[in-house]
């Protein structure tokens, strides 16, 4: 038995790029008896399947041990051809996602959770609210005793202390540098070689504020993109990152390309709100003349919002007018130029010092012979 409300946040691709849609479990959602089951001992476990709309199904699969039962796995099947929920979807596929949950209770007790409980399943987040769930019932009604979820308590009896200052998480190693290529009908429109690290500030469930660093692992990341006459995009996705979108634009007045926008939609598991989103389309970074490439060996930090920035390592990028899948003439970043000035200045100072010592030595040698004649 189950009684709850549910909200869904789903990321999907449209003809204009990735987007998010939010919708609720409708009042006419119903248990699909043909697929739900009370289970059979030692052969199958109980499952509750709730159907709604055009082929959408939310499934709760239960398991138990001697003292407790739990929703071992939650699954969601959704139909992208349902235009009411997924307008302008570029695909008409039926997608399936699933994830383990923290829904558990003692045997012969109902699970009770008034607070929001979020379950993240790849690019879908399901939020249960005011939930009462029980499996392996002794009779046909909820038990009077209950097991409360962690999100509901315990509640403090006194006013909570003021939140501490943000504490940074341990710094991970520098991310791996990877080469990305975006091509369209007219060939390659973006070449990028770089290592990426996301700097995210968020509130944890205990209301402490922390800063987390998340390195992009190219081996677990898929890359897509699009080529337009005035906009080029690179979209990176992984199990945690639903979408990290880089947007490159051009300035026809100066004949330059630049990074003009970054969008992020990712999951931060230990955050109070695990779905983290940020967007800024007014950036001006990684700038070079169209036909040339921008290169910087030094680490660059691009501030997207107050809570989100991107650390970029050893970047080499070129947008628009990429000839033969090769980088064009290099325009060095200011950080690299400044770093070159230091050894030049030090070398010049050392050379000047050597010259002064040599001159002083020669003058001293000449004076040491004054007033003497050769015999």
From TrEMBL:
Keywords, in A-Z order: Cell membrane, Disulfide bond, Endosome, Glycoprotein, Lysosome, Membrane, Signal, Transmembrane, Transmembrane helix
Family matches, as InterPro entries: Lamp2-like_luminal, Lamp2-like_TM, LAMP_CS, Lysosome-assoc_membr_glycop
Transmembrane parts of this sequence: 340-363
Cellular component GO terms, alphabetical: cytolytic granule membrane; late endosome membrane; plasma membrane
Annotated Pro residues bias: 157-173
Membrane topology: Single-pass type I membrane protein
Chief subcellular location: membrane
SS bond partners: 113-149, 189-227, 296-333
Domain Lysosome-associated membrane glycoprotein 2-like luminal: 175-323
Descriptive protein name: Lysosome-associated membrane glycoprotein 1
Source organism (scientific name): Puma concolor
GN (gene name): LAMP1
């Amino acid at each position: 038995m189950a009684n709850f409300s549910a909200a869904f946040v789903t990321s999907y691709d449209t003809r204009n790029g990735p987007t998010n849609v939010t919708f609720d479990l409708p009042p006419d959602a119903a248990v699909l008896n043909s697929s739900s089951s009370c289970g059979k001992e030692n052969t199958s476990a109980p499952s509750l399947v709730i159907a709604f709309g055009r082929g959408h199904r939310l499934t709760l699969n239960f398991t138990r041990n001697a003292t407790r039962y739990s929703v071992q796995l939650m699954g969601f099947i959704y139909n992208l051809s349902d235009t009411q929920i997924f307008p302008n979807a570029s695909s008409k596929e039926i997608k399936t996602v699933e994830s383990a949950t923290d829904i558990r209770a003692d045997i012969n007790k109902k699970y009770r959770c008034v607070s929001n409980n979020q379950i993240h399943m790849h690019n879908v987040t399901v939020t249960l609210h005011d939930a009462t769930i029980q499996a392996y019932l002794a009779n046909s009604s909820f038990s009077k005793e209950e097991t409360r979820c962690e999100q509901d308590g315990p509640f403090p009896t006194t006013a909570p202390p003021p939140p501490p200052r943000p504490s940074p998480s341990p710094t991970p190693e520098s991310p791996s540098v990877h080469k990305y290529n975006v091509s369209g009908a007219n060939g390659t429109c973006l070449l990028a070689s770089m290592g990426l690290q996301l700097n995210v500030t968020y509130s944890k469930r205990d209301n402490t504020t922390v800063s987390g660093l998340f390195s992009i692992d190219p081996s677990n990341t898929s890359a897509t993109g699009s080529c337009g006459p005035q906009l080029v995009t690179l979209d990176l996705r992984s199990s945690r990152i639903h979408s990290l979108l880089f947007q490159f634009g051009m300035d026809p007045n100066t004949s330059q390309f630049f990074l003009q926008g970054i969008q992020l939609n990712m999951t931060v598991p230990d955050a109070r709100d695990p779905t983290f989103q940020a967007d800024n389309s007014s950036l001006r970074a990684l700038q070079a003349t169209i036909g040339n490439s921008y290169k910087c060996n030094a680490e660059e930090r691009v501030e997207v919002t107050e809570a989100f920035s991107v650390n970029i390592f050893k970047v080499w990028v070129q947008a628009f007018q990429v000839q033969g899948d090769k980088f064009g003439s290099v325009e060095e970043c200011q950080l690299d130029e400044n770093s070159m000035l230091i050894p030049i200045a030090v070398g010049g100072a050392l050379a000047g010092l050597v010259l002064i010592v040599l001159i002083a030595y020669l003058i001293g040698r000449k004076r040491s012979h004054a007033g003497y004649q050769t015999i």
